[in-house]
Amino acid sequence: MCAAVYVLSTVTGYVLTSALLMKCPNLLHRRKREPFLSKHISHRGGAGENLENTMAAFKHAVDLGTDMLELDCHLTKDEQVVVSHDASLLRASGINAHISDMTYAELPPYLCKLGVTFQRECICEGGEDKRIPLLKDVFEAFPHTPVNIDIKVNDDRLIKKVSEMVVNYDRENLTVWGNASNTIVNKCYTENPRIPVLFSLFRVLQLLGLFYTGLLPFVPLKEQFLEIPMPSIITKIKGPDRLTRSHRLIAWLADILLMRKTLFQHLTARGIQVYIWVLNDEEDFQRAFDLGATGVMTDFPTRLKEFLDLNGISKPR
User: Fold this and answer.
1) Rounded to 10 degrees, what is the CA torsion of 159, 164, 166, 170?
2) CA-based nearest residue to 166, from 154, 155, 174, 158
3) Alpha-carbon distance 82 to 164, whole Å?
4) What residue ranges of the chain have pLDDT lower than 70?
5) Quick one: CA dihedral 85, 86, 89, 94, positive or negative?
6) d(Cα 213, Cα 217) in Å, to the nearest integer?
7) What is the C-alpha separation between 308 and 315, in angstroms, rounded?
């Protein structure tokens, strides 16, 4: 009997303490300093309105008032850091070669038309700018705009060069970097812990485990940005008729587990921003902000800006 009472009181105390710290995490953790706040994030510069990852796309998004540019980086044969999503040039340039096997001068331009990954049956037709830019071009053109850098490959040279460039352009407080790979994120953090990092896929799964067991409020977190997809959008990308029953079930379950307002509020209270990607219509914009996301990543920056303006969602301070 005494043992049962002891166990019950211990469990009750743990649950109550966890619930208290979930709502008031600053009782245990110092709130992280937020170097910048972003509601409006342009995915690949706005891949639905201009050719992805081009200077034209970035300029359009910045002129529109985006809070952050999201882009991807690779390293060329002559060790230039270029802005491109794919390691291969086949999809974007029609050339069966890899960026790492060519010098920057040898890189071909983008094709005139590119499919928009997160918008079903959507093709973006570009203007005159089809050049694959250098990361330094972006830093020089937009010195005050935060940039979200996806380090696409596990390459120590790439990580080091990006870090050096961030430091040289005085952008440690205007940059977040990382990848879904935990190995890459750990290397980024080791190379320069002053640049905020994203949660890797492994760490997202770990985060969910901590959240659902009630341990999250007790655990320190080195990351400052949680970037996660909204799983329900898969039906819009693929079309419900193209998904099997098991795929729909997995998407539904993932959505239930990931899209948790309590989790987002807890992280935000700790100074960790929550970005949901890649959302391209008003319904999903609304759901993301209703859930407590601090920012939305989109292929259509004009749509998101109009939504924010129409709904009176204030710009970050």
Assistant:
1) 160
2) 174
3) 14
4) 1, 5-6, 314-317
5) negative
6) 10
7) 8
Residues 46/296, Cβ–Cβ less than 8 Å? no
Retrieve residue 213's tokens.
């067991």
Q: Which helix (H) or strand (E) holds 115?
A: strand 113-115
75, 57 contact by CB (below 8 A)? no
Pull the structure tokens for residue 123: 């093709």
Q: What dihedral angle (degrees, nearest 10) is formed by the CA atoms of 26, 69, 137, 125?
A: 170
The single-letter DSSP state of residue 193 is: T
Q: Which of 239, 235, 283 is nearest to 255 (CA)?
A: 235
**pLDDT the model gives residue 14:** 86
Rounded CA-CA distance 81/162 in Å is: 7
pLDDT score at 244 = 87
Domains of the chain and CATH, by start: 31-72+146-310 (3.20.20.190)
- DSSP assignment letter at 276: E
User: Which of 269, 306, 265 is CA-nearest to residue 289?
Assistant: 265
Q: Look at residue 154 and give its three-state secondary structure.
A: coil
Helices 182-191 and 201-213, axial angle in degrees (round to 10): 100
Q: Is the pTM of this model over 0.90?
A: yes
CA 13 to chain centre: 36
Angle subtended at Cα 225 by Cα 224 and Cα 227, rounded to the nearest 5 degrees: 165
Listing DSSP states for 218-257 in one string gives: GS-----EEEEE-GGGHHHHH-GGGS-HHHHHHHHHHHHH
- 15 near 214, Cβ under 8 Å? yes
The DSSP code for 98 is B
- 71 strand-pairing partners: 149
